[in-house]
Design goal:
By secondary structure, the chain is α/β, with parallel strands linked by helices. The chain has three domains: 179 residues, no CATH class; 58 residues, no CATH class; 69 residues, no CATH class. Helices cover 47% and strands 16% of the residues. Helix 5 crosses helix 6, helix 6 runs antiparallel to helix 7 and helix 11 crosses helix 12.
Length: 324
């Protein structure tokens, strides 16, 4: 069976980028809405006050699944001499600068490697300027934007040490960054759809009903109408998947995915299941899942692929892997 992941080299002018592609990767809605270069260029112009008009000036170099980081990024592209990483977050994560550092480090490593340049040589190696933006529509952020710094995590404190990576977090909740929303209509539409879903949940609707009602409301209001009419089912699935991931900490394995455990039983893990029964159902279930995940990792499967195979939240798989 052919591997689902393949390493590819991507060329932009004189630069080469080393990328890992996961063919099973499931899009999130934010990335899906900005998959077209014209929409991504509009977002870039809105953020930077630039006036680029030709979508071909923008070269997409998104890494669909970064294996060693166990993370996905949403949108990455080069325009001019700038390497941009745009991500979307609905839950707060203080480790965004660290994720950005690891991402850019891998990109730069690939660039230097494929050029055959000597980092110990006398000549200065030319690099694209990195820029890291996170669009945030979760709770707990009252300002329009916030800067996060890698050095904030250092024991010596902010501004110390020889290494820094900054991340600008932009609040896209309803009522924030209105000028930016006016400049990029697609971003405003996404923010409105998200706000509609959250409002419906606050009013007591279940997630499925909240998402369905929000989509119908946005269609009536002309918000994302072109996307929602053509891909309503896909958008609904994306939103439900994202909301399910947000509540993974409230899940127990019993409330989670029994199918993955049944699949493991069918694939020759009877011995592991028997051990689990002897030690107690809950403990045995966790051991069984650990063994199944371990075998899939040995076969070269990524975190996202394992989560898809077992129909378990990505965050739960990551938690189990960290225990191995």
């Amino acid at each position: 069976m052919a591997k689902q992941n393949a390493r590819k080299w991507y060329r932009h002018g004189s630069w080469w980028m080393k990328l890992w592609f996961n063919r099973k990767y499931k899009d999130v809605l934010f990335r899906h809405l900005f998959r077209e270069k014209r929409d991504l260029l509009s977002l870039y112009n809105a953020l930077n006050g630039s006036t680029y008009e030709n979508p071909d000036d923008l070269e997409v170099v998104t890494m669909e699944d970064v294996i060693f980081m166990k993370m996905k990024n949403d949108l990455s592209f080069i325009i001019g001499s700038q390497l941009n990483l745009y991500e979307h977050q609905s839950t707060w994560n203080p480790n965004m600068p660290l994720r950005g550092l690891l991402y850019f480090a891998q990109q730069f490593e690939g660039l230097v490697d494929v050029r055959g340049e000597n980092i110990y040589g006398k000549g200065r190696i030319e690099l694209p300027t990195p820029e890291y933006i996170v669009f945030y529509n979760g709770s707990g952020m009252d300002t329009d934007s916030q800067m996060l710094y890698l050095s904030d995590t250092y024991s010596a404190g902010h501004g110390k040490g020889c290494l820094e990576c900054s991340c600008k977090v932009i609040n896209i909740n309803r009522g924030h960054n209105r000028t930016l929303m006016e400049r990029c209509h697609r971003l405003w539409e996404y923010a409105e759809l998200s706000a509609e879903v959250e409002e419906n949940i606050r009013q007591g609707m279940k997630r499925e009903e909240a998402v369905h009602t929000a989509i119908d409301s946005c269609i009536e209001r002309g918000i994302l109408r072109d996307i929602l009419l053509a891909e309503k089912g896909m958008v609904q699935h994306m939103l439900l998947t994202e909301y399910n991931e947000k509540r993974h900490l409230k899940h127990t394995f019993e409330e989670g995915r029994k199918e993955g455990l049944e699949e493991g039983h069918q694939r020759g893990l009877e011995e592991g299941l028997e051990k689990g029964r002897q030690r107690g159902f809950n403990q045995g279930r966790e051991e069984l899942l650990q063994e199944l995940i371990h075998k899939k990792l040995i076969k070269g499967k990524t975190i996202s692929e394992i989560a898809e195979d077992l129909e378990i939240e990505v965050s739960v798989i990551e938690q189990m892997v960290s225990k191995q």
